[in-house]
């Protein structure tokens, strides 16, 4: 793709993406994920949504690539038992316990990318204090301290639409909610990003993962071999 991958722009200095392009990219990614989850004959679980797998054409239209870990499931089932796969920093917390891929785990990864686009910071930054090395924890603390816009990418020099920035950050947190059952669907995320639905009222402190709402993996069968594939962020 002529525009390269999103991570080259956000983290490797290929170009400084202006705010309107960033918002267009996240909306395009959400539309791609909606198609995979809801609009085909089967639900496609991507399982590795991350900045380096988001490709951009010459007009910065979004293309989601690398389906090497993707799985097909029935729409009614919406989940898949497998061994842990994905990239650290983008893997939903419940996956470490169950290995189950779901629409919600894809939404979690989408939320991480949304936060990266808004903040210009990787999903994991070890240079920060340990409790704030996670992008989600860092943004959530700013939100709880009523300083949410302080996490906006400093490279933008405050040249962004404040309403859209707040919306993107809150959608990112909502999608990356630690509790599986509290995340919104990608269709709902699109509605909020388009200002067709209300912003969430999230708790001021980042919740702890709740495993009570995770489906029983023993009831879901797979006919394909299980796989273990975890990528470390670069």
From TrEMBL:
Gene Ontology BP annotations: defense response to oomycetes
Protein origin, superkingdom? Eukaryota
Q: How does it sit in the membrane?
A: Single-pass type I membrane protein
Molecular function terms from GO:
ATP binding; carbohydrate binding; protein kinase activity
Record's keyword terms, sorted:
ATP-binding, Cell membrane, Glycoprotein, Lectin, Membrane, Nucleotide-binding, Receptor, Signal, Transmembrane, Transmembrane helix
Q: Is the keyword Cell membrane assigned to this protein?
A: yes
User: Matching PROSITE patterns, A to Z?
Assistant: PROTEIN_KINASE_DOM, PROTEIN_KINASE_ST
What PANTHER family does the entry give?
PTHR27007
Family named by the database record:
In the N-terminal section; belongs to the leguminous lectin family. In the C-terminal section; belongs to the protein kinase superfamily. Ser/Thr protein kinase family.
- What is the name of this protein? Protein kinase domain-containing protein
Q: Which organism is it from?
A: Rubroshorea leprosula
């Amino acid at each position: 793709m002529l525009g390269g991958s999103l991570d080259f722009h956000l983290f490797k200095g290929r170009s400084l993406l202006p705010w309107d392009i960033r918002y267009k990219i996240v909306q395009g990614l959400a539309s791609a994920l909606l198609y995979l989850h809801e609009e085909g004959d089967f639900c496609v679980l991507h399982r590795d949504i991350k900045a380096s797998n988001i490709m951009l054409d010459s007009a910065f239209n979004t293309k989601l690539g690398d389906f090497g870990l993707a799985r097909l499931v029935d729409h009614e089932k919406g989940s898949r038992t497998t061994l842990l796969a994905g990239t650290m920093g983008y893997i939903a917390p419940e996956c470490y316990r169950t290995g189950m891929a779901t629409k919600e785990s894809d939404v979690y990864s989408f939320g991480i990318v949304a936060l990266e686009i808004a903040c210009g910071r990787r999903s994991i930054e070890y240079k920060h204090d340990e409790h704030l090395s996670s992008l989600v924890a860092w943004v959530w603390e700013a939100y709880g301290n009523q300083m949410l816009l302080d996490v906006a990418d400093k490279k933008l020099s405050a040249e962004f639409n404040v309403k859209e920035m707040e919306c993107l950050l809150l959608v990112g947190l909502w999608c990356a909610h630690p509790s599986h059952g509290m995340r919104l669907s990608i269709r709902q995320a699109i509605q909020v990003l388009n200002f067709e639905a209300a912003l969430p009222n999230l708790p001021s402190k980042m919740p702890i993962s709740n495993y009570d709402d995770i489906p029983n993996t023993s009831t879901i069968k797979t006919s394909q071999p299980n796989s273990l594939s975890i990528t470390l962020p670069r």
